[in-house]
């Protein structure tokens, strides 16, 4: 009974409520014999619905995150940690400003990797917007709080995009003589990140973190067909990553 109620509740909050409205509008257009518009709306609504279901979004995300497996025995001479967003003015244990959920997961993975390998961490990520915090400053404070010595923290503070992450990091790696970087970023973001680093002649060892989907398909339950905002977000994330990879491959940017 509890799952049935949750399934129904999914259609009274976004995106489910919009799907319901679109279905009803499509039916009304059919009754008015505006079949062309009705059919187009119905197809768009069905696509929107499919992308909003955990069943499809998890399959899409799982496929993207499987592009690079986690190395069992990673080795390298520097850990390159990609930023992924920040919050400004938010409270923290030892100051203000914080990293986004995705950035925090990446940072934790890099810190754990550091304590195994004891090689420097190069964090790349600056201030993307005027009203956002400097990711590099926040990352440095968090890394120090996790026991990383200051002398083993290198900051690249100018980049605002994945392409700039790769460009400016490639310059720093060359200046400091690093030859075997281990790249830490979110699993869904790894394919595009590797592509950008390759564009600047940098071969990396991918170390994906922060998986958003189970590695194996979950047992089917009708709840996986209930529209959810988080599922739609994951679907959009996958589509965005694939499109950006395509554009990078086609244009070099």
Notable characteristics:
9 helices; single chain; 253 residues; elongated; 5-stranded parallel sheet; alpha/beta; Rossmann fold; 2 domains
The chain-level mean pLDDT equals 92
How many strands? 7
Biggest sheet features: 5 strands, parallel
End-to-end span in angstroms?
A: 51 Å
Radius of gyration: 22 Å
Structure, described:
The chain contains nine helices and seven strands. With 253 residues, it is an alpha/beta fold. It folds into two domains: 2-65 and 227-251, no CATH class; 78-209, HUPs (Rossmann fold), CATH 3.40.50. The strands form two sheets. Strands 5-4-1-6-7 form a five-stranded parallel β-sheet, with helices on both faces. Helix 6 links the parallel strand 4 and strand 5 (153-156). Helix 2 runs antiparallel to helix 3 (35-51) and helix 8 (190-199) packs parallel to helix 9 (229-251). The termini are far apart. The relative contact order is 0.17. The model has no long low-confidence stretch (mean pLDDT 92).
């Amino acid at each position: 009974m509890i799952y049935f109620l949750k399934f129904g509740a999914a259609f009274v909050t976004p995106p489910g409520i919009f799907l319901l409205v679109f279905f009803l509008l499509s039916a009304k257009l059919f009754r008015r014999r505006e079949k062309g518009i009705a059919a187009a709306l119905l197809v768009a609504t069905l696509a929107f619905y499919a992308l909003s279901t955990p069943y499809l979004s998890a399959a899409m995300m799982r496929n993207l995150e499987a592009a690079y497996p986690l190395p069992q025995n990673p080795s390298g001479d520097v850990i390159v940690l990609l930023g992924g967003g920040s919050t400004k003015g938010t409270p923290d244990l030892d100051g203000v400003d914080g990293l986004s959920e995705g950035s925090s997961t990446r940072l934790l993975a890099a810190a754990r990797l550091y304590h195994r390998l004891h090689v420097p961490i190069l964090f790349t990520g600056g201030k993307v917007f005027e009203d956002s915090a400097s990711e590099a400053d926040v990352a440095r404070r968090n890394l120090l709080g996790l026991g990383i010595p200051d002398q083993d923290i290198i900051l690249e503070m100018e980049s605002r995009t994945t392409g700039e992450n790769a460009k400016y990091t490639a310059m720093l790696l060359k200046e400091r003589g690093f030859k075997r970087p281990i790249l830490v970023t979110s699993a869904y973001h790894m394919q595009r990140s590797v592509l950008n680093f390759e564009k600047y002649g940098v071969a990396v060892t991918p170390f994906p973190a922060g998986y958003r989907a189970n590695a194996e398909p979950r047992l089917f339950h009708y709840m996986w067909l209930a529209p959810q905002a988080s599922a739609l977000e994951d679907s959009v994330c996958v589509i965005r990553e694939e499109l950006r990879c395509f554009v990078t491959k086609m244009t070099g940017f």
